[in-house]
Each structure stands twice: as structure tokens, then as C-alpha cells.
Write a structure and sequence with these properties.
The structure is a single chain. It contains 21 helices and 18 strands. By secondary structure, it is α/β, with parallel strands linked by helices. Helix 3 runs antiparallel to helix 4 and helix 20 runs antiparallel to helix 21. The radius of gyration is 30 Å and the shape is globular. The two termini are 52 Å apart.
Amino acid sequence: MTQIAFAGVGVDFGATKLFSDVSCTVGSGERWGIVGRNGTGKTTLFRLLTGDLEPTRGSITRAPGLRVSLLEQHRDYGAATTVWEAAAGELGELLALEQSLVEQAANLAHDSSPAALARYGEDLERFEREGGYAVTARIDAVLHGLEFDPAQARVTPLAALSGGELGRLGLARQLMSTADVLLLDEPTNHLDLETTQWLEQYLAASERTVLLVSHDRAFLSATVDHVLHLEGGTATPYAAGYTDFVAQRAERRLAQQRAFEQQQRTIAHEKDYIARNIAGQNTKQAKGRRKRLERLPRLSPVIGAAGTMALRFEVADRGGDQVVTAKNVTVGIGERTLVERFSGTLKRTDVVGLIGRNGSGKSTLLRALLGEHPIHAGELKLGLSISTGYYRQDLSQVPLDRTLYEAIEDLRPKWERGPIQGHLGRFGFSGQEVLRRADSLSGGERARLAFAILTLSRANLLILDEPTNHLDVESIEALEDAIEEYDGTVILVSHDRELLRALTTRTWILHERHMTEFAGGFAEWEEVSTERAHAAAVAAAEEQALRRVHEHQRVAPAPKRDPRAELRRAQRELEEAEAAVAGLESEVARVVAALEDPALYTRPDGTREAHALGAKLETLKRDLEAGIERWTRATEQVERSGQSDPQAV
């Protein structure tokens, strides 16, 4: 069923034509990737879908009653005060009912009157009918998947969250909405590798329609089944996933280029004929050809590299072969240890991928390497003649109080106007743009200026902390090419798996305060450590199942000890079932922890041991599922026994 239809849509801003002739249809359950260079109109397209902007030309048709949800940059959480309330969003009424049930269940211990029991029974029936148990467990699962502690989220105030955490919370709130269509604008920007993979699985299991703007090529490949490509002032729809889109786009461009070149040859031939015959005996034919040539619709050349960064990293000094040496290094913030007893080396021309969860200490370790953060113990030093260039995740290296021209002039005071403008032009800034203040730039523009500054360092060690966050796909490809051609050493922190797969020669994995060195690139690491993803998936599924049982117990009145045999038997069965699940849960946690430990996969027999543990985990999973089912039945039996005998409450 068609939910959204674009017909000849165009948008102008004053005299500037952003795009035109956009036509496509979005069907129920489809997942569209919106791709294109920065500034081609991806965000504008979302504003059209929400109704915040009307098209200058054409029309947009929506199915009657269609609800669309957009993750806004400036979020309004309404009356929510805690992280959990903010994530719940429009489900607040159902959650208020849940809290009322919890309070009623506690009050039944001293007020078991028929009226109190009747009200509790009616509210509980409504809670079950509207899916309350499943909803609260789902909110917990989404929060957990996006790196929040669900229990802590119930008491954590919104004001306590960082910018990155607010970004993840906004995504959680949107995923919990009841909208028919989700519009996701760069949803992976604040996510680490594990969380991005969780989001992929979540969207794959969802039946809702999704339109997403993303620069993460691996995420797009795993998520979308249609692509809308904005380029050259219009948009082309592809009924294909991202990988097939890339191949089809290449074929389309090749055909377009051949047609353009053929037309250019035809035009040149006609012009030559006209020039030779316009004043001769064939003047009539020449004039006729000239009229036909004037009416000929001109084909456009293939969109080239204009607008992307012309990025190149040069090295002023080769530097030594030993670039970084770490011996028993411990790094922390205050009393909290982030990296413990790390020993390792980095050699010239290595490209090491540094991976780990958000908040694990990756950026702090990089700052310690540069001498910007003290180490608690050990020795961490750069080799001889090593100079560093640092791309900071927060782009704080960009001087916001300076114009683009002044930012480059400060670093190259001997350069005249021409070289400065030429340098900025290679990063997409031309004409009067160079006189803009840096604080007026968008995220993507600020990132390009940061690279313009970085290339001037001519360092032989580049430290790149999440360099792709604000770049479009074409700029990321330019960055990938520049790193590949670079004759120095690179430490790369990124959640862009395609970039890590293409470039890294070694991998450092930061997990539970310990750094594991893997003597291979990220692609090899993914291959040998597949059981880690299996373990994470099992743990997430079982946690969600356990949450449903706990939710039953939260809203149920706890019956007092009663001499009646039926209630005693139900309570005994509940205790036994709960104990059995606790034991299995502990064993699952032990196996999951073993599989998630990166050190396992660096041992000679690590792969074989991981497969054995994976098989054991599957057995434990089946046993735990059966145990949870038994626990659920026992919980419901105790509830029924307690409610059937008011004196037992």
C-alpha cells in the first residue's frame, strides 16, 4: 500500500532552486535510504514529509491519517523529568496507569476492601488489554540497546545527560513512538559499533516504514531496501538496497556519460557542417540544421567531484619506525579507571583502528598520548621525530571567532590571498564564503574546515577521532582515499565499519578497561569474532524476556503467607522457578562475558573455544527460555491465588 507519493516536487528558496522533478512512491514497510552530498536537500525533504514546508512545485500525497515522526535537532520532552519518562514519550498515559497499579498493589496490603480490589482488577485488565507488560519491557529494551541502564533511567533526571546521551535519548523516544513512518536523520552519529548493530537489528525487525538519512555505508547496506539519491538538482529513486544502488548508479553514470559524449560529437559535427555551408550553395540545409540544433535538448554531463573535498595528507618528515610505545599504561578520570595496564606499540605506516563502547576511554587515551591528559601509571610516549595532527571529535580545533580566511592565514602567515583562497577552495569554500565566521558553519562545513586545518600540519602521525560524523558519503570516500595514499601512521577511532574495513591494518579493542591488540585489520577482526555478536544477541533477548516477568511482579500485589495449600504450592513453585532462572541467568552471563572478551579471539585456539562456548550458549538459551516460561506461569498462578482469596492479601 502506498503511504507517500511525490509527483514532480520542486523546492526553491528565493532565486535558488534546490531541487526539482522529484517523483517516487513509498510503500508500507519499505525502508528508504536518502543519500546525497551535503546541501542537496535531504533535510528539506524531511520537512516536506512532516508538512513543515510546502513544495514550490508539484505535489506530495499522504495516506489518510498517516502519522510521521521526525527526530528533531532541538527536542521537546514535554513534562518528562526522568530519562525513562522522556523515552516513553506518547505512551505516558499507559505508564501513568502502570505507576498507579504499583501503588495500588502496595496499598492492598492494608486495604483489601471490595472497592479497592475491584478498582485494581479493572485497571489491571485495562493495562493488560492495552499491552502494558510488553510496552514497558520494550521501553527497557530500547533504552538498554541504546546504552542506558533501564532501572537507573527511571530516576535519572534529564538535566544530568550529556549532549551525546541526549542524542541517544531522542532516538529512543522516536523508536517508541506509535507513528506509521519514522524519519531518521543521521541516527548513528552518537552510537558506537555495538549500538549501531543493535539499531540495525531493531529496524530490520520493525514493520514500520523508515526513511533515513545516513552517511554510514555499512548501516545503509544492512538496513535499507530502497534508495533515493539526490544529485544534480533532482532525485533518482532506486528499488534496491544500498550495495546494489552503488552498482546501478555506476552503470547509470556510465550510460549517461556515453550519451553525453555521443551528443557532444553530434553537436560538433553539426556545427562544423553549419560553419562550412552557411554561406554556400547548401545554405538552406545549413540553416535548417542550425534550427534543429537550437531546439535539441542538451544532456548534462555526469556529476563530477566538484563540491567534495580535494583531500591530501602530506608528510613533512618521515619520522622514526617506532611511532608509539605504551608500557603498562593506566589512564583514568578522577577515581575512575578507563584503561588499565595497556602495553603495545605502533609502527610507521600502521593504520590502527581503536574501537570500544562510548565512554570507555578512547578519546581520553588519545589525549593522554598527546600529553593533554595525565596518565595514572606506566609509560606512554611518541617516537623520535614524530609530529601529530589531531582531528577532534567535537571539532574544537576550529577557531569559532575567526573567519575561514583568518583561520588559514593564522597558520600560514606568509601566504598571500591566492594560496589561502586556493587552499579553502579545495575543501568546497569559494568566493565570499571564505569571509564567513566559523561559528556560522554547519556541522559538515565545520568538518571540512577542520580537515583544511589538519592538512597544513603535514604531520607523520594522524589521530582521527570520529572523522566521518558530519561528512556526506562522497566526502567520506575522499577521506578514505586520502588515508590510503598517506605515507604516515594513523590512529583511527570510528564507528564507520566500511572505513575501518577498508583501511585498518591492526586493531585495538578497548573492553572492560583492558586493551586487546589484534594483529589484523577490522575486517579480519569481524570475521574471527562473530561469536561476540551471537553472545550479545542472546543476552539482549533473554534480558527482554526477564523484564516481562519482572513487570508482572511490579504491578501485582504481593500475597501474604497463607495456610491454604493452593497458595502455598503456587508460592513454592514460584520460588523454585525463580531460583532456577537465576542459576541459568548467571551461567549465561558467564558464557556471554567469556565470548565478549576480545582476548579470547587472539589466542591460538580462540576460534575453536569460541565456537564451543557458542554451542553451549545455545543450549543455555533454550533452558533459560523454558525456565522463564515456567517462572511466568508460576507468577500468574500466585497472582490468581492471591486475588481469589482476598484474606490472603
